[in-house]
Amino acid sequence: MSLSFLGDLLQTITDRGRDLIRGRAQAPEEGDLSLACETLLSSRGEASGTGRALAILDRWEALDDAGRLGFLKMLADRYGPDPQRLARAVDAWRADPGPLTMAALHEAAEPRRQELIRRLNLAPGGIATLVRMREELFRHQGEHPALDAVDADFVHLFSSWFNRGFLVLRRIDWTTPAHILEKIIQYEAVHEIAGWDDLRRRLAPADRRCFGFFHPQLPDEPLIFVEVALTRDIPATIAEVLAEDRTPIAAEQATTAVFYSISNCQKGLRAISFGNFLIKQVVEELRRDLPGLDTFVTLSPVPGFAAWVKGEEGRPAALDQPGWWRDEAVRAEVEQALLPMAARYFVEARGRGGRVIDPVARFHLGNGARLERINFLGDLSPRGFKQAHGLMVNYLYRLPDIEKNHEAYAVQGKVVAAPAVTRLLKTAPKSRRKQG
Predict the structure, then answer these.
(1) What digits encode the pLDDT tens for the residues 190-202?
(2) 389: Cβ–Cβ under 8 A, 6 or more apart, which residues?
(3) How far apart are CA 352 and CA 238, in angstroms?
(4) Which residues, other chains included, contact 326 with Cβ-Cβ below 8 Å and sequence gap of 6+?
(5) What is the CATH number of domain 166-426?
(6) Which is the catalytic residue, given 364, 389, 406, 431?
């Protein structure tokens, strides 16, 4: 008897058993999701719990917008910590502070919805539905502040379930199944992929790479992916990376790996960090396969720059003129004014909580990269001009310096920048925000 036959047989038995459990669990609770959730929390058997969890998630998927919001509000209102149990645990700890009473207090303080979400995750495909549930929560969070506590519980659980130890790094290339490639087109968030021909240019040539993180419970859903160009030099513009008529080089001839697009794919996993692990592991993969690579750098957008510079005195008025970059004299005038302001934006400007303003900068600087170069007119796309007046930057990942750079940023708030950037900073006018 072959292993494949045994596998098929076991899967059939499992599916039929699951259908039976699901049917039994659904009937008594048809009209009340709250009752169904309480029953799930009180159940002891894993098999019955799986069926009940599946029934609840199926019914949640079938709800309309108002019904889904009602379910989320129910989680906020009825599934926090048990007040009486928590009070008893507090009293017990005060009377006898020690590791056992502290553990009991910690357990009592945990919201009941965390255990409910854990049990919902027992359902086949449960984790995918829970990620979509958090996406739904985002739609209502601004109008219903009580949902913030529910979101905090999702973040707490997802941070464990999507821990780096559970993620699988996979190379994505032109031989990857089409249903995954379609999602790469769909999820690309930095430089739009204009159909299959454009995707092929990014994946098929020898000097192109793409890697993504996948979760074992979501094998066909990339969580995050990075696109890499293998080059001889550090590029200053995205056009030279994505040019249709460029001449590819052999991968072995490359000395530089350029991370030019990083896209998070699942909105429901917002604030769950994957990117730092992804870049570091991809660097390891590339160094092992291509030992001739000695430079690892990004070509990154600057999504916060245009909004910031709008409030700065000294902002070139020409930026408001359509097509200003086509006039050589105007272009030179804007470049002379804009680059020093950009240096100050990255190195000195701070937002709420004293953090670097630009989100992409926070990500790479926090990972230990160095701000290497500011590229004037690096992105001539409408999005590039809207976000940053065409500006792009390179962040350099120099492996011996990553830990030192990270510590400088994390502990001292210091932005480690290349000499070319600090020279620009010396010519920048002092920051003076416009009034009104």
Answers:
(1) 999 999 999 999 9
(2) 305, 306, 309, 319, 334, 338
(3) 30
(4) none
(5) 3.40.630.150
(6) 364
Q: Output DSSP code: residue 224.
A: E
pLDDT surpasses 50 at 3? no
Stated as kind and residue range, the H or E segment containing 212 is strand 208-214
Tens digits of residue pLDDT in 330-342: 999 999 999 999 9
Q: Which of 291, 263, 166, 294 is nearest to 218 (CA)?
A: 166
* Segment (H or E) for 231: strand 224-231
CATH 1.20.140.90 fits 3-161, yes or no: yes
Q: What is the pLDDT of residue 434?
A: 61
Q: 129: Cβ–Cβ under 8 A, 6 or more apart, which residues?
A: 57, 60, 61, 120, 123
Give the per-residue pLDDT at 10.
34
Reported confidence tier of residue 428, pLDDT bands at 50, 70, 90: confident
pLDDT at 257 exceeding the cut of 90? yes
Question: Under a CB-based contact definition with an 8 Å cutoff, are residues 132 and 63 in contact?
Answer: no
Q: Which of 191, 263, 300, 389 is catalytic?
A: 300
Same fold: 3-161 with 166-426: no
The SS3 call for residue 213 is strand
Distance CA(365)–CA(363), nearest Å, equals 6
Cα–Cα distance between 178 and 203 in angstroms, integer?
13
Per-residue model confidence (pLDDT) at position 15: 52
Q: Would you call 389 a catalytic residue per the annotation?
A: no
Catalytic, 406? Answer: no
C-beta separation of 369 from 376 below 8 A:
no
